[in-house]
Amino acid sequence: MKEIRWEEVGISNDFMFGKIMRDSELCRELLEAILEVKIDRVEYPEEQKVINMTADARSVRLDVYVKDGLGTVYDIEMQATDTKELPKRSRYYQGMIDLELIEKGESYRKLNMSFVIFICTFDLFGKGRHKYTFENRCCEDEKLRLEDGTQKIFLNAMGTQDDVNEDLRAFLSYVAGRKSDNSFVRKLDDAVQRARKNQEWRREFMTLLMRDQENIEKGRAEGLAEGRAEGRTEGLAEGRSLGRNEMIVEMLRNDIPAEKIARVAGVSVEEILEIGRSAGILTKL
Questions:
Q1: pTM (2 decimals)?
Q2: Measured distance CA(204)–CA(22) in Å, rounded
Q3: Angle separating helix axes 258-265 and 230-253, nearest 10 degrees
Q4: What angle is formed at CA 94 by the lines to CA 93 and CA 96, rounded to 5 degrees?
Q5: Of 100, 137, 232, 275, which has the most beta carbons under 10 Å away?
Q6: Residue 230: strand, helix, or coil
Q7: In 116-265, where does DSSP find H-type helix?
Q8: Strands 114-120 and 73-79
Q9: What is the pLDDT of residues 245-256, one digit of tens each?
Q10: How many Cα atoms occupy the beta-carbon half-sphere of 48 within 13 Å?
Q11: In the predicted model, what is the mean pLDDT of residues 164-178?
């Protein structure tokens, strides 16, 4: 497993993006660049907002969920992997947002205007555009809009067309890993550099990364249990164990307590300490 270092994490990482967008001014400037409209203010950024309507419904964890001074709702998602289901996911997110916006028995007229925005490091539709905007229209008369107050926007950091404003183009270039002299991008980069020095965020990131890795390993193990050859299973299990150990060592180096790592990894504290000793790291309970 390739080691992920907090010092190298950039804006295209959803955790970092969510932290940077806690700055309401940066969030407002980004929305203005995307939508090309003036936004008076961003009222309350919420990082990784969770919407879970019922116990048996699939919950939604949103990277950035904000409202402006007019009550318009914006969900902004950073997407670094083409999971082949983003259009359907945008539909689900839109529905869940609507369910939260309106109470049972209230008039549908109370539904706010809302935008679901995916910032992608890849071209989801393969047309070379930086920006793909979708809204509901009549199939028989494309000039006739449904006016249901929703839009879904997919941004492409790999766009090649001259189709967006300078700030948005510079931002998407920055998402793709390229530097820029654009003033907005300079502010974003300064925020990223400051974030990398935040030890609390660093520990939180490593903990979440460890938990995600464990979930991935669990899923792989379940799949392998369905009939893979025993020798191949053992080989993959050994590789996953090595990847897990690397993650544990990195978390110990970041001063995350052994007890917390043990809870996340699902192993004993003694095993965590043994891995730390093997790596030459002194830990304290």
A1: 0.74
A2: 16
A3: 150
A4: 65
A5: 275
A6: helix
A7: 166-175, 183-196, 199-224, 230-253, 258-265
A8: parallel
A9: 777 776 777 677
A10: 11
A11: 96
